[in-house]
TrEMBL record:
One Pfam family from the record: SKI
Function, in words: Catalyzes the specific phosphorylation of the 3-hydroxyl group of shikimic acid using ATP as a cosubstrate.
Protein name: Shikimate kinase
Binding site for ATP: 2-7, 104
Transmembrane segments: none
Organism from which the protein derives: Mycetocola manganoxydans
Entry's localization field: Cytoplasm
Subunit details: Monomer.
Length: 155
């Protein structure tokens, strides 16, 4: 969470001249704020909606930014196994300055939870990643350009 998937993903897509899809934004557009979905229906319900959004997005020819927990779904793990997956990492110190916790229900108790969640998920993120970029200390535009350059060389 807060690594820059949405902001950097959008710029990577623009640089590669392909469409951009953010699965969180699609869910919000259809069902309203994520905090409300978590509060009213619970996390498992959110994960089901998210899985549907991810499946639809991965059928498109696009740069897709996933929600931070999308990879928890086993079907998404399977789908990503043969895709180009860019892992964005960030240090706890850098993310503390970025995250507005009120928009992220899983961080309602503060950024201390961020590290715990990251540590829990790290093996999944790293297993699925084709390549990894750290976003802690460079501007968004610069990181996006490095990723787009990598992608052009990779395909
Ligand atoms: N390299 C960067 N340098 C400084 N600020 C950044 C950088 N990347 C992202 N940010 C800022 O951090 C915040 C979170 O970025 P963004 O929403 O893109 O993260 P995310 O990975 O999509 O998070 P989530 O998992 O919650 O969807 C934004 O306010 C963004 O402007
Ligand atoms: O890391 C997570 O589990 C989440 C990250 C966000 O992108 C949203 O999908 C939601 O707040 C849950
Ligand atoms: Mg995002």
């Amino acid at each position: 969470m807060g690594a820059g998937k949405t902001k950097i993903g959008r710029r990577v897509a623009r640089s590669l001249a392909v469409p951009f899809v953010d699965t969180d934004k699609r869910i919000v557009a259809e069902y309203g704020p994520i905090t409300g979905i978590f509060a009213e229906q619970g996390e498992p319900a959110f994960r089901r909606l998210e899985r549907d959004a991810v499946q639809a997005a991965l059928a498109e020819d696009a740069v897709v930014s996933l929600g931070g927990g999308a990879v928890l779904h086993p079907d998404t793990q399977r789908d990503l196994a043969d895709r180009t997956v860019v892992l964005l990492t960030v240090t706890a110190a850098a993310v503390a300055a970025r995250i507005r916790t009120d928009k992220r229900p899983l961080l309602a108790n503060g950024t201390g939870d961020w590290q715990r969640i990251y540590d829990d998920r790290r093996p999944i993120y790293e297993r699925l990643a084709t390549v990894s970029f750290d976003t802690s200390s460079e501007p968004i535009e610069r990181i996006a350009e490095r990723i787009a350059d990598w992608a052009r060389g990779h395909s």
